[in-house]
Amino acid sequence: MALGRLALGTVGASRRVSLQRGLLFLCALVLLLLSEAVEPLGASGSPGGAGDSSGGSHGLQKGCEADVTKSKHPTNRTKKPFPVLSFDYEHVKTPFEISLWVLLASLMKLGFHLIPRLSSIVPESCLLIVVGLLVGGLIKVVGETPPVLDSQVFFLFLLPPIILDAGYFLPIRPFSENLGTILMFAVVGTLWNSFFMGGLLYGVCQIKGTDLNTVNLLACLLFGSIISAVDPVAVLAVFEEIHINELLHILVFGESLLNDAVTVVLYHLFEEYAGVGSVSILDVFLGVVCFLVVALGGVLVGAFYGILAAFTSRFTSHTRVIEPLFVFVYSYMAYLSAEVFHLSGIMALIACGAVMRPYVEANISHKSHTTIKYFLKMWSSVSETLIFIFLGVSTVAGNHSWNWTFVTVTIILCLVSRVLGVVGLTYVINKFRIVKLTTKDQFIVAYGGLRGAIAFSLGYLLDKSHFPMRDMFLTAIITVIFFTVFVQGMTIRPLVDLLAVKKKQETKRSINEEIHTQFLDHLLTGIEDICGHYGHHHWKDKLNRFNKKYVKKCLIAGERSKEPQLIAFYHKMEMKQAIELVESGGGVKLPSAVPSTVSMQNIQPKKPPSDRAIPQISKGREEEIRKILRNNLQKTRQRLRSYNRHTLVADPYEDGWNDLLFKRQKLMEIEKKMSKMSNYLTVPAAAPDSPTLSRARLASATYVLQKIVYPQAYSSKPTSDDLPTIKVDLASPQSPDSVNLVNEFQKAATQNDPDDDGGLVMKVPFADKDQGEQDNKKEQQRLMRCLSDPGPGGDEEEDEPFLP
Amino acid sequence: MTGWRRPVSLEQISILHKRFMQLSHNEDSLRREDFKTISDLASNPIRFQIIEAFFDKRNFRQNGEGSVEEISFEQFLTVMSHFRPVPVHTMTEEQRESLRREKLRFLFNMHDTDNDGTITLEEYRRVVEELLSRSGALGKETAKGIADAAMLEVASVSVGHMEPDEFYEGITFDHFLKILNGIEIETRMHIRFLNMDTTNLCK
């Protein structure tokens, strides 16, 4: 019976899920049809689609005309009843359509993840293209012309968020270590691809039998340059999901970003001269110079804006709310400025993001950092979705001129040239690399060379008058894109598994690794200096020192400019552990990867028994003290609880919220544990001012707590911003309650498990734990002070003297 | 020259010899003071440890211990050979492992100054203090905190469960190997300059 109910339940659940999915798709369809239905009402089936302003201006024009006609016949106005409800779609047409498309894209994305197994087999990009095809088909069926992906919209609005997201979060270390390899692939590889493909295509076109004779050499070369560039959007979309190791990821991805400069130059070069029909040596030479200008210029523009952004962020400590805005606007300005001069906008964006990141992150608040991260991810995600959907729609919409020979030869040549290029270049590169690229690596790099929307947009930009075969080109481009995204995109994941390519290491960076990475850097720099050889460690060290001495002082506000990297890393790690602790419910689950019972006391060397300043006490006395302490500890804990409820609720600083939540959780947990405990009392063995002394289960928790509670000992941040409200100053006894809180935690931390009799139990003879004796005395004094100062809301406890 | 698996090429040896002569002012042996004349080394936070490593007998591959006051060219070359680049991808797994051990042993010797086979908490604290010494006056407390946390991590990973009154003596070489498994030392700890002849692979 239970089984039957269970079965019914699951069936019902799956039916519910499929019902939800169905509703979702129905919703999307309705939205679509709505958008199509209102379009004819707008009296302009504009082919510009989303973002096209011609429809809007057309509408405005009509309005003006209507006004003019009205004014020509002023006397003929008859009195109409006052319009209560009117319909005026024209003036919201453009934003309405844009919003509908964005909504459609997001709903599609939602929908895919509701279908459980689909997203693990088919990469999202493929699904989105299919959706685009369907939508385009639907629009055609309805009778409208579906919009084509407008190149302006693509390059100005859809591409920048994706590139900024990639550039801001670019892992600098692997990127700079492999920069030579990446540049080789990007520059030489793309050049090879373009010329190989262009040349061979021209050869094929010249063959009698195909009717491709009209395609001249320059047009072929232009086509080759458009189609040969690896596309960052497609690469990101597919590689995000397969989690290969960092090296391969950065190689393919870096190549896709840096080949933009080459593509831009080649495209403009051939486009300029394809109309004319010939290219001279001077033009080639100018092209080379142009390449250097485009690449370096883009990087410089980006770096300039990056420094500006970093400098601006230095002063934002009073207006934290608009910090993310600076990051976005400066980056976008970098992109647009580069585009003004026909420099490489992509490289400008990457440079801007990479340059500004270390300084901006040191200056902005934690919340702004989160905001930037999420906004970038959101925008880039939406952009990517829209791009793929529009690719699908454009396929249906565009005029196609299918030529079997051309298309098949293009696809074959793409694959062949890519493989040859990668193999040849790797042979040369491996001579200079220490970590050589294996055959498996080469295969993944070659197979991961996906083409995408950039190629399509570049092709779309071609002028039809200069290039009569533009439609054929577009068809071929779309076919190649479909082939790479569908075939290569879908099969790369099983291939990666089949070839057992190394996957991304998911391990957290440990403090030991960080220490030794830095140590190794300094060691290698030192050895290079001893050898007298100015190798790349030497220059890296020089750059770091220059950075620390001059740049950081300018661009980072306040005290953070002096914080060395190791300490920053350490703070970050502790913060992460604290947050993890809170999220895992207050220390019930061990936050670190390896559960262990090792704690700080295992590491601290045993201190020799010092001279006891206090006389030995009798057993009876000891028992009395124990009882008294226990009673009062419980009382103070109760008082603390009520005390904390007041302060926690009234906390004005939201930044300290995490810390306080965390403390509250800890308190509640300690409550639980104390209630389970029976008659013994444990006392920490070392002096309370040693920073860490607790069992491993709460080791990191207490450690963090100590950090939060002793802020001046650990961080150099100025106390003006976001500190938790409970501060401790051990030196001054004026804050007995807080001090008591600390002691409370220390004590409780050592009493966590009533089951094992471990922990430091106060044993007889007392001589062993003489330090604990000293503590007892100190605590008694503190408790006395605390009891005499009840604090707000603590009046249910009476003050009873605990020492007779 | 026992224990050398791959010789350094002749060209490299002559360049290093020239450098040796330059540093030692054309004498036969180098002393610690000669290293101090290298100006670039002055800004290195761990220069003392690096210089010490050259005079540490444990790095001379002769199973010696203790330190010397002056080194010959052969010993100079031996220490340098720890940093030669090796074609890792042609090696078998055990060759890689032994290469890792060799390089990590060098690092271990740099930390373990009293040569008792373990890196105690004091020694580790000193390492972190040195690393942070050039980075401004942030006090010994932070360095201590970081070293403590690092030590705790090693103990947690290597030993796992310890009773509260047990004492973790220090990081042994095996623990050191384990904790630094993540950084691929065999591919990172080399100076490109010391490129070597790959034809001889003595077993």
From TrEMBL, chain A:
Any one GO MF annotation of this record: potassium:proton antiporter activity
Biased composition (Acidic residues): 794-804
Membrane topology: Multi-pass membrane protein
Transmembrane segments: 122-141, 153-170, 182-204, 216-238, 250-270, 285-311, 341-360, 381-398, 404-430, 473-496
Domain Cation/H+ exchanger transmembrane, residue spans: 103-496
Protein name: Sodium/hydrogen exchanger
One CC-aspect GO term: basolateral plasma membrane
GO biological process: regulation of intracellular pH; sodium ion import across plasma membrane
Superkingdom of origin: Eukaryota
Keyword annotations from UniProtKB, A to Z: Antiport, Calmodulin-binding, Cell membrane, Glycoprotein, Ion transport, Lipoprotein, Membrane, Palmitate, Phosphoprotein, Signal, Sodium, Sodium transport, Transmembrane, Transmembrane helix, Transport, Ubl conjugation
Record bears the keyword Ubl conjugation: yes
Domain Sodium/hydrogen exchanger regulatory region, residue spans: 593-696
Taxonomic path: Eukaryota, Metazoa, Chordata, Craniata, Vertebrata
Similarity comment: Belongs to the monovalent cation:proton antiporter 1 (CPA1) transporter (TC 2.A.36) family.
UniProt keyword DNA repair, yes or no: no
Catalytic reaction annotation: Na(+)(in) + H(+)(out) = Na(+)(out) + H(+)(in); Li(+)(out) + H(+)(in) = Li(+)(in) + H(+)(out); Li(+)(in) + Na(+)(out) = Li(+)(out) + Na(+)(in)
Chain residue ranges for the region called Disordered: 45-75, 747-804
Regions of compositional bias (Gly residues) in chain numbering: 45-58
From TrEMBL, chain B:
Alphabetized UniProt keyword annotations: Calcium, Cell membrane, Cell projection, Cytoplasm, Differentiation, Lipoprotein, Membrane, Metal-binding, Myristate, Nucleus, Protein kinase inhibitor
Pfam families, per the entry: EF-hand_1 (PF00036)
Entry's Gene Ontology cellular component terms: cytoplasm; lamellipodium; nucleus; ruffle membrane
Entry's localization field: Cell projection, Lamellipodium; Cell projection, Ruffle membrane; Cytoplasm; Membrane
Membrane topology listed for this record: Lipid-anchor
GO MF annotations in UniProt: calcium ion binding; protein kinase inhibitor activity
GO biological process, one term: cell differentiation
Residue ranges that the Swiss-Prot or TrEMBL entry lists as coiled coil: none
Transmembrane segments: none
UniProt keyword Metal-binding present: yes
Residue ranges of every copy of the EF-hand domain listed in the record: 99-134
Record-stated family: Belongs to the calcineurin regulatory subunit family. CHP subfamily.
Name under which the protein is recorded: Calcineurin B homologous protein 3
Organismal lineage: Eukaryota, Metazoa, Chordata, Craniata, Vertebrata
Gene expressing this chain: TESC
